[in-house]
Write a structure and sequence with these properties.
Layout: H1 6-23, E1 62-64, H2 72-75, E2 82-89, E3 106-112, E4 129-132, E5 140-144, E6 155-160, E7 167-171, H3 179-182, E8 187-193, E9 200-204, E10 216-217, E11 222-224, E12 227-234, E13 245-248, E14 254-265, E15 272-276, E16 289-297, E17 318-325, E18 332-338, E19 350-353, E20 360-365, E21 383-388, E22 398-410
Antiparallel strand pairs: 1-15, 2-3, 3-22, 4-7, 5-6, 6-14, 7-13, 8-12, 8-14, 9-10, 9-13, 11-12, 15-21, 16-20, 16-22, 17-18, 17-21, 19-20
């Protein structure tokens, strides 16, 4: 067998060693994308926001989706249909904090505002309610809290006879966003009733509802615990300066108790959102698989509307989490996560609940086989992350505490 000298061997290996050394200097094209635990929006926490009308289209910061997309008074600043308020570190005062949630992270109170004044009827009823005829023993309304007529604490008892023109009515001009705006907007009215009456109602002038034209009959009432939900949708085609009252009981005998009235704008996108250009994240956005998560819990001073003795503020019964690709098409992942103990079976993602702290981590992923295909070179926003404190099937006022939004990338799929 022929022997090779050490010098000859070294000479033969030299090119390979040089090539190997050179390969060590080649940049990894996936640098920064291999760690699926990395939060791509760490620089865009909830404290990084611009909730003004002027900043509604800003990227890289949290904004209101409804800003700039409604009528002129709202675009100019108008009424705040939602609020976002810091409430302190989640671990303040030694509070229990689940694994994965930074004790130093700031919790924020996200609320969709109830436009109905004194909707829980725990306060005195003022001039927003009236009856015709006034001071009548057969047609009237009053606050009840005992005798089995009440629903949650104090409630509004309504009695109307079958006499034409008799009614009990609410002045829609007293909604929190102001009289001048009502005729331009669409609203959803939700309220609990303790029976299943056929409620006849109409939209009419608040100070003159003696006619019985244009009566509307309530649809089937949804079951809501042991009670029912009475829903009304009214918009600019029904509202106007001459139709500012929601009048009950026109032309028929009605006897029912009303409680927990909640009114919201239903013609705007009541969402907190984060618009993202590719350069707004670290590392920058590329095509692939993403996961969006948020921690949430019920505030200590709020109660679900289904709870006994409920009064405002109402706790959000759901939190809707969404990822929306903005271009080249609008593919998305979205789920409304129940926060009140209702059963849930998301098609993707899931929840992680910590009983000791009340915090739950809501995790949203793309459907199996799905991925985002936006242009990583785009100078425009390509992705929108959003949060809404209600179920998208039915917007209703409510408040929830949220903390630590995270966006993660999975190089080789979930």
């Amino acid at each position: 067998m022929r022997r090779t000298s050490k010098a000859a061997t070294a000479a033969a290996l030299a090119p390979l060693l040089i090539l190997g050394a050179a390969s060590c200097n080649i940049a990894d094209p996936f640098e920064g994308y291999r760690d699926s635990a990395k939060n791509l929006i760490a620089a865009s926490g909830l404290g990084s926001s611009d909730l003004s009308a002027a900043g509604h289209a800003s990227s890289g910061v949290w904004t209101w989706a409804w800003r700039g997309a409604t009528d002129a008074d709202d675009a100019a600043g108008g009424f705040d249909y939602m609020t976002l308020t810091p409430v302190g570190a989640v671990g303040a005062g030694g509070a229990a904090v689940p694994e994965g949630l930074d004790p130093a992270a700031t919790a924020y109170r996200l609320e969709l505002v109830n436009l109905m004044p004194n909707g829980d009827f725990e306060g005195a009823v003022g001039g927003e309610w009236a009856a015709t005829p006034a001071a009548d023993t057969n047609t009237y309304f009053n606050i009840v809290s005992t005798g089995g007529q009440e629903i949650n604490g104090k409630s509004l008892y309504v009695k109307v006879t079958a006499r034409p023109g008799d009614n009990v009515r609410f002045n829609l001009g007293t909604l929190a966003d102001g009289t001048a705006s009502v005729a331009l907007h669409t609203y959803a009215w939700l309220s609990i009733v303790n029976t299943s009456p056929v409620i006849t109602y109409k939209l009419a002038p608040f100070d003159d509802v003696t006619d019985t034209e244009n009566q509307l009959i309530s649809p089937n009432l949804d079951q809501f615990g042991s009670n029912k939900v009475f829903k009304v949708l009214f918009n600019e085609q029904l509202l106007g300066s001459d139709r500012m009252a929601l009048a009950f009981g026109l032309g028929n005998t009605s006897d029912f108790t009303l409680d927990d009235v909640r009114v919201v704008r239903s013609d705007i996108e009541n969402r907190l959102r984060l618009l993202l250009k590719p350069i707004d994240t670290s590392p920058s956005l590329v095509r692939g698989y993403y996961e969006f998560s948020i921690w949430a819990r019920k505030p200590g001073d709020a109660a679900f509307v289904t709870d006994a003795g409920t009064a405002e503020p109402y706790a959000a019964r759901s939190l809707t989490v969404r990822m929306l690709q903005l271009s080249p098409d609008q593919s998305s992942a979205e789920h409304s996560y129940p926060l009140d103990g209702r059963a849930d079976s998301p098609d993707w993602g899931g929840t992680v609940y910590d009983a000791s702290s009340g915090w739950v981590k809501l995790v949203l992923r793309l459907a199996e086989g799905g991925n985002f295909v936006f242009d990583p070179r785009s100078a425009e926003p390509v992705l929108e992350l959003s949060l809404a404190p209600y179920d998208y099937a039915q917007a209703e006022p409510g408040v929830v505490e949220i903390a630590q939004p995270e966006l993660r990338f999975f190089l080789n799929g979930y």
